[in-house]
Design goal:
Strand order of the largest sheet: 1-2-3-4-5-7-10
Helix content: 10-25%
Shape: globular
Radius of gyration: 25 Å
Distance between the termini: 36 Å
Bound molecules: beta-D-glucopyranose
Strand content: 15-25%
């Protein structure tokens, strides 16, 4: 307990005191929820001390080692509502605050918002008795149909890495370990337990792995979760190259690797670099890292004692580094009001204004009549499904019905309609549930404006079948737009959707899954109390024909062992694929409108000792305060690069009308290079030459450009 010693020193002092049995007990975790979904084994009964969420790992009371109390936390401290008990596990009163989806947080282009959200959920976790959060989703959005994109941070590895690292730091500053997941290339849900994500290793380093690398280097997560899928034919949790060579070797990750729940395939996974088996009920009856099994492996020389010691050491080291010994959780009521405001701020910064014809928005508060249509907008906003579900404070706004995983469908009780009524106190605000387009159109026809809320519920374990809004909502929008030319569409979607009605409506706001403050955020944005400033972290295609894989692989036999060929696009994920193939998307990566306008000047790029700095001025040229999101793309010389351009820097800048700010961005060195995997000596290398430096408001809207000359350089992997 001498906190002046380093985490390494403290961990080795404790590890030296532990018996073999004590060590082995730390290497497999229990599922901390009562469950009975496996016919061939007795029901799961978690130990008394378990707070009751995704996981529990025994500590060693004799030595003061606390147990690990793990909860999912992609958008908040999750409650396992999924199927096993037919309701929330930790009570019915409502527990935690839901952040907006990960895509929303990425759309803020603001790592400090990600940090604040992380700090909020870290605080709630600490107050609810948890010391490990399974947060930090960093898989890239290679497919806009992926059912879990809402838990991740978009298609660009630099943006995703920076955002996720911000969230991890926010969580861990509350003395709660954060986990990066799902390592790696778990980029579609269909067939996730069997598929192999196949990709050239160099391209993987320049794309998916780069997001994780930045998450590790900038966020210092205590743990990382290996994924269900295979990568280049070898299961992620058995993959020595991924776990030992790249993560622990190249990146110097000092923490521990835990498995996803049910993702272990062999006791030999320990030798490959897996440190801890999670939720062992998922693997039952074979507990791969059980004490007796590991002991047998040790006795037979199939695993080295030094490896077992390293596994334990890594767990202890992270526990010390993050403060689990010095600042244990203290059960305290959460401050739901303050926490909802943090969530609301994230939603306000991440909602993306996609269309605003004739300055339809912001709405004037003197407006007389407003039709609110669809999406349960009278009572709440949608959450995504699966293990990330948060049972929100106050309980779901719409009574959940189906409790089978990955259900139920949860609406956070933050009513957009109430917020709109508050913004326009003199207006008649009426609601139509949108089920019958004719009745919705009738209400729209008799109102000054119509606001249609449309939803796309997505969830872990399933992918969107296509890019269309489900349940005939396209028809609903068209019917309303035909009845009222002031039709505003608010999207609550987990992924990009196509918009066949786009030319018929006057404004579109992508509000993602906006979380516990979502209703208020939408109200503030529609009425201009807050200026929209989100920019797309994911390309919106015009249709599946523009994707590298128009037909999602594995649909015919999701349980079969199939390959997903990511070499089609390699590292050219998302906008890079669109740029490389000259495809015009519906909305490009980085796009987002504001109620003000910005002008850019004095772009200058310099290279001193292989450190590239990009500087420019940005000015608010409109009449209201707002946030600019200048983005810097590096344009490769002919024959270099995975695509014509790569995002290498961005900064969100708050500006009053008429205000100018000077911005200086230092470009992460690896972003200048390509990865060399051909020799035993893996490294990044910079091809000498003249590179374009383009400054824009999206990946397709460039304001200024200049060049920078790069010299040949090698960078450690
Ligand atoms: C998910 C993980 C989650 C775990 C524990 C798995 O099904 O893939 O993201 O952390 O369950 O709930």
């Amino acid at each position: 307990m001498n906190s002046t010693l380093s985490p390494d020193k403290r961990a080795s002092l404790v590890e030296a005191q532990m018996t073999l049995d004590e060590k082995l007990r730390m290497l497999h975790g229990l599922y901390a929820v009562p469950a009975n979904f496996k016919g061939n084994v007795p029901p799961n009964v978690p130990p008394q001390q378990a707070v009751g969420s995704a996981g529990f790992v025994y500590g060693v009371p004799r030595l003061g080692i606390p147990p690990l109390q793990e909860s999912d936390a992609s958008i908040g401290v999750a409650d396992p509502v999924s199927g096993v008990t037919g309701g929330p596990v930790r009570g019915t009163a409502g527990y935690s605050t839901a952040l907006p989806s990960g895509l929303n947080t990425a759309a803020t282009f603001n790592p400090s918002v990600a940090y604040d959200g992380g700090a909020m959920i870290g605080t709630e976790a600490h107050e609810e008795g948890f010391n490990v959060l399974l947060a930090g989703g960093a898989d890239l959005a290679r497919d806009p149909r992926n059912g879990r994109n809402f838990e991740y941070a978009g298609e660009d590895p630099w943006l995703a890495g920076v955002i996720v690292a911000g969230a991890v730091r926010g969580i861990q500053d509350q003395h709660v370990i954060s986990t990066l997941k799902h390592y790696a290339i778990n980029d579609q849900e269909v067939g996730r337990n069997t598929l192999s994500s196949n990709i050239d290793w160099a391209a993987a380093h320049e794309s998916d792995l780069f997001a994780f690398e930045m998450g590790v280097r900038l966020g210092h997560p205590g743990s990382i979760m290996c994924a269900y899928n295979r990568v280049n034919e070898v299961y992620a949790c058995s993959n020595q190259l991924l776990l030992t060579d790249i993560l622990k070797g190249q990146w110097g990750f000092p923490g521990w690797v835990m498995s996803d729940w049910g993702a272990v395939h062999s006791t030999y996974d320990a030798a490959a670099g897996l440190d801890q088996e999670s939720g062992d009920y998922f693997d039952a009856p074979t507990i791969w890292f059980s004490g007796p099994r590991l002991k047998a492996f040790l006795n037979e020389g199939r695993i080295a004692q030094s490896r077992v010691d390293d596994m334990v050491f890594r767990i202890l080291r992270s526990m010390f580094a993050v403060g689990l010994f010095d600042d244990p959780p203290v059960i305290t009521p959460i401050n739901a009001t303050a926490d909802a405001l943090i969530s609301q701020h994230d939603a306000e910064q991440g909602a993306v204004l996609l269309k605003n014809a004739n300055r339809q928005l912001p709405l004037n508060s003197s407006i007389k009549s407003i039709a609110i249509i669809g999406g349960h907008a009278d009572v709440g906003v949608l959450e995504g499904g699966g293990s990330s579900e948060v049972w929100p404070v106050g309980g779901p706004a719409v009574t959940p019905h189906n409790f089978g995983f990955p259900h139920p469908i949860i609406y956070d009780p933050s009513s957009p309609m109430k917020a709109i009524e508050q913004q326009a106190p003199g207006a008649t605000v009426l609601f139509d549930d949108g089920k019958d387009p004719r009745s919705a159109a009738k209400l729209a026809a008799s109102s000054d404006v119509a606001i249609v809320f449309v939803t796309q519920w997505l969830a872990e374990s399933i992918d969107a079948k296509n890019l269309h809004l489900p349940n005939m909502q396209d028809t609903l929008i068209s019917a309303v737009a035909a009845a009222n030319r002031h039709t505003i569409v608010v999207l609550e979607t987990g992924d990009p959707v196509v918009m066949p009605w786009l030319s018929q409506v006057s404004a579109v706001l992508e509000a993602w899954y906006p979380g516990s403050g979502g209703g208020a955020a939408i109200g503030n944005l529609l009425f201009g109390m807050v200026n929209p400033s989100g920019h797309l972290p994911i390309t919106f295609p015009t249709g599946v024909q523009q994707l590298p894989r128009p037909k999602e692989p594995g649909l015919s036999d999701p349980n079969g062992y199939f390959d997903v060929n990511y070499d089609i696009e390699g590292a050219a994920v998302g906008y890079k694929w669109f740029d490389k193939n000259n495809l015009t998307p519906l909305f490009p990566f980085g796009f987002g409108l504001s109620y003000t306008t910005f002008a850019y000047s004095h772009l200058h790029a310099s290279n001193s000792n292989d450190h590239v700095t990009v500087e420019f001025d940005v000015r608010n040229t409109g009449k209201v305060a707002g946030w600019a999101v200048p983005q810097v793309y590096l344009g490769f010389p002919e024959g270099v690069g995975e695509a014509p351009r790569r995002l290498v820097g961005f900064q969100k800048v708050a500006l009053m009308p008429g205000q100018t700010q000077h911005v200086s961005l230092s470009v992460e060195q690896r972003l200048l290079g390509m990865f060399d995997d051909t020799t035993g000596n893996r490294h990044w290398y910079v091809t000498p030459g003249q590179y374009q430096v383009v400054l824009g408001e999206s990946s397709r809207d460039f304001k200024l450009n200049t060049t920078v000359t790069l010299t040949s350089a090698n960078i450690a992997p």
